[in-house]
Amino acid sequence: MDGLFVFINQLINGLQVGSIYALVALGYTMVYGIVKLINFAHGDFIMVGAYLALFSVPMLLGAGLPAILVIVLVIVMSVIGCSLLGMATERIAYKPLRGSPSLSVLITAIAVSLFLENLFMILFSSASKPFPAIISANPISIGKIQTNAVTIITIALSIVCMIGLQLFVKKTRMGKAMRAVSEDAGAAMLMGCNSNVTISMTFAIGSGLAAVAAVMYCSAYPLVNPYMGSMLGLKAFIAAVLGGIGIIPGAMLGGFVIGLVESLTKAYISSYLADAVVFGILIVVLLVKPTGILGKNVGEKV
Amino acid sequence: MKKLLAVTLAAALAAGFVGCGGSGTTSGTTSNAASGSADAGETIKVGSLAPLTGSVSVYGITTVNGIKMAVDEINANGGVMGRQIELLTEDEKGEVQDAVNGYNKLISDGMVFLIGDVTSKPCDAVAKIAAGDGTPMLTPTGTAPSITQNGDNIFRTCFLDPFQGQIMAQFAAEKLGAKKVAVMANSSDDYSDGIAKSFVAKAQELGLEVVGDERYGADDTDFKTQLTKINAAGPDVIMFPDYYEKVALITNQARQIGFTGQMLGGDGWDGVLTSLGENASVVDNCYFSCHYFIGDTNEQVANFVNGYRSLYSEDPTAFSALGYDSVYIMKAAMEKAGSTDKAAVLEALRATDYTGVTGHMTFDENGDPIKSVAVLRLENGATVLDTMMTADGAEDSAPVASESASSAAAASEAAASSEAASSAAA
Amino acid sequence: MASKRGKTYFSYLVNLVCVVLLFIVLTALMKAGVINTYWAGVIMLIMINIILATSLNLTTGVLGQIALGHAGFMSVGAYAAALFSMKIAEAAKLVENGAPTAAGFGTFLASLVVAGIVAAVFGLIVGIPALRLKGDYLAIITLGFGEIIRVIIENVKFTGGAQGLSGIPKLSNFNTVYWVTALTIAVLFAFGRSRHGRAIIAIREDDIASEASGIPNTYYKVLAFTISAFFAGVAGAVYAQQMQVLGAKTFNFMRSIDILVIVVLGGLGSLTGSIIAAVGLTVLPEALRGFSEYRMLIYSVALIIVMIFKPSGLLGTREFSMSAFLRWLRHPQIKRKKAAAERGSGK
């Protein structure tokens, strides 16, 4: 019987990691879906969001606001900061490269990532800073099963974000413009859709999602340092590819699959080889269905 | 226009290379000439090599801070044999190839003594070259056993990985009365992995049951799965041999998944209270082995800690203390040798008998230190000295201090029992 | 026809003379102490990076596929060579007074071949399934394979696990590695100009058209990928026997990125571009040592600027040719004609 409870707890552990991956993957998939750019700097936007949150918490707590308002304001402030950063990055580094070979854009994205990491290292040193516990991570026990508030909020938030994004992309004018631009930027332009504004908007939303992820990530793992985003970004990107990159529910699914696979591998196969198993599953899925779990197979036009 | 810009940029870069290449070579030749003659009026060029950028830079910077502080102190007090020390610092990013380049750069800049490297793998690579050219090398923090075996000009200030693992296993069995132990380590870090392996081996030798032996990746931040698995096996104590930033995450999560037993660690734990911030209570009643005790009332330690705090406005770590001591060990050796001549300095270094911030130490025939280890206890957000343990790092069967400890250990134990618990975090 | 062949032989001769001259100049400078140990060490790294970049250029530049797992093949080669030469070192004396003996020289050459073959086998195993994918997906899958190789090396016994390997005989030295690098470049150059190379370029330009005109796409893709892996293994072998210690952490995905950056900066498909970029990007961080903490910042900004103003890399797909350069020196009017032609095509 104990084994069963351990198993359930391991599933919950997997869901928590998975929900963070899902939240980050949403941002990746959003940008990739519209601009077809692997934004390697996305992980570093998370890092920037984390620093913004880190500095805004004491400010807001100092103002004597109630806890729930602090959480909301922290998220809002980092979302605004990250969105501006995302738009600025797009304008300065990515826009001049529109139409260039995808490799040059990839390299630029990597360079932006290096730039942000090193800039923050110079500004705030490489030492990790503890993140204040604005959302309690203390265990909530139901019998022998344990979880915590951060996990529940993260899962809820990622589902809300996913549904919100899906509605935004499918139902609003801006969403329609985004889909049009991703389909054929030139034709969209001829139809009177301002592709520059649309792409800026995409980056703003994607980076905003990174900020939301940053606050949740830091609540679960309360250390902030300039390198925190790189591995998280990579794993989340893999989640996005696994679910079908460019497809919003796919990012969500991919995130949870990676989280669960990681957790169950560590628990029941080998904690030594967990990363190898995760990458192995990615490879198998890509070979069987290259467009990801939820991806549509598109025939190639000749 | 674009083309013009690109061309000018390329030209500027190229000019940069040529310029730097030129200056590098000329300075190399002149300093080679200078280091040949030990002119009394000249500065003594001491090299330090550490990761100052990159993901392990936090440990490199804190070490170099300790080294710089000692060098400034010595220079302010008249230097070594009347000569000032000139500290040359090179960054190695935590990478083997950058460490090797950095070392070669230091040599061409005329370094006569190396204090470094900080992390084990790059340190080993550098030691191999240093063994070839005979430059005296003293690593403050490189813990892998193979480092000092490269040559008899390689020494270290810290104790070795296996030693800490053995001490803590012994401590768990004899002092904490543990029956079931578990360990969780970083699978891509030789320091962490080395301590974990020796801990497991010693625990088994002592008849303890090892109920968990798990690993995680270098960039992981979630450890709940492994911890849940270990916790289900019901260990009395868990050993987490890693550096403080990882440890802060791990110990926090261990409590979150409901582990209530004691947690142990190695010298990498020093600094964990700062990383935990307001969560410091999660490590209450946990123990780790360390080189020194930050709240020691000993004048030397107190001076070091206060001086460091006023210089860098943060607490020193064990890394800083080791860096600091390494400089003074070098100074003592040079003064004893009466010159900076390699052979004479090495001769003096071998005969080191030094008492510093990290305690009393001598070198064994490998160049590894024979010193006592402090086992520290964390309680109420502060570090307290629990036990001084002495053992010969090379020998498994060495007696570990309990009641019948050596005089130094007994004295420190007295200090501990009087609970001169000064706060580390405050 | 005859004159064309004559021209080709002439340009080969010019290149050979240049390579020999460069070797003599470098050796002389080292002997004279103008190039000190530090810069000699940097030159070794430059040569390792040249082998890595030119070999990745075959996959990424000539074949046009993004591969992010080059460090994986490098690590396989490094470990294979290290284990091989450590085994031999138990039986024979390979190093004497810091320099390799005759036996050491032989072992070194053999270890390069062993490393290359082992890496090529891995390349084959990875390439056959992975090359069914294209573009970003191929990038991800090769990244995945690279990481799997690293995790496995970290966790098996014979590679030393997390402790890595220590005590690898130092068999790499300038003389040998220089000629290994030159040979690598020559082989890759000849391969690119051969029938096979042209077939691979055809796949890059339009894979459907090339398949339709009878080129076995899969065969050539896997061939290019395997050759690329072979030379990555050779570079790994040189690296291992230069550094004398190995840890799997060295070969993480950031190293693959570093190599890719060299190739893209040099110009996709341009072998000489890769060489120039390898020299530049190895020297740049060293030249910026004085700025220590700012050097990665400068590096990243420089990279962004170059990508924005010259997205096709320094040389694009062109090659820098010594004989063409000589011709240009003798007949400056070619320059004017060329410039006019360029202006014409640019419009």
Could you characterize the architecture of this molecule?
The complex is a heterotrimer of chains A (302), B (426) and C (347). Chain A contains 11 helices and 4 strands; from the N terminus they run ααααβββααααβααα. Chain A has 302 residues and is mainly α. Chain A has helices at residues 2-35, 42-62, 67-94, 102-124, 149-171, 173-183, 185-190, 195-220, 228-243, 248-268, 274-288, and strands at 129-130, 139-142, 145-148, 223-224. Chain A is globular. Chain A has a single domain (1-139, 147-288), classed as Orthogonal Bundle (ABC transporter involved in vitamin B12 uptake, BtuC), CATH 1.10.3470. Chain B has helices at 2-36, 57-76, 96-108, 120-133, 161-174, 190-205, 224-232, 244-256, 272-276, 299-312, 318-337, 342-350, 407-417; strands spanning 44-50, 85-91, 113-116, 137-139, 154-156, 180-186, 209-216, 237-239, 262-265, 286-290, 353-356, 359-363, 369-379, 382-390. Chain B starts with a helix and ends in a 9-residue tail after the last helix. In chain B, the strands form 2 sheets. In chain B, strands 6, 7, 8, 9, 10, 11, 12, 13 and 14 form a 9-stranded mixed sheet that branches. In chain B, strands 2-1-3-4-5 form a 5-stranded parallel sheet. Chain B has 13 helices and 14 strands. In chain B, α2 crosses α11, α3 (96-108) runs parallel beside α4 and α5 (161-174) packs across α6 (190-205). Chain B is 45% helix and 19% strand. Chain C has one domain: ABC transporter involved in vitamin B12 uptake, BtuC, CATH 1.10.3470. Classes of the chains: A mainly alpha (302), B alpha/beta (426), C mainly alpha (347). Chains in contact: A-B, A-C, B-C. Chains B and C meet through α1, β2, α3, α4 and α6 of B and α2, α5, α11 and α12 of C. Chain B: It comes from Anaerotruncus colihominis. Chain B: Residues 394-413 are annotated as: Disordered.
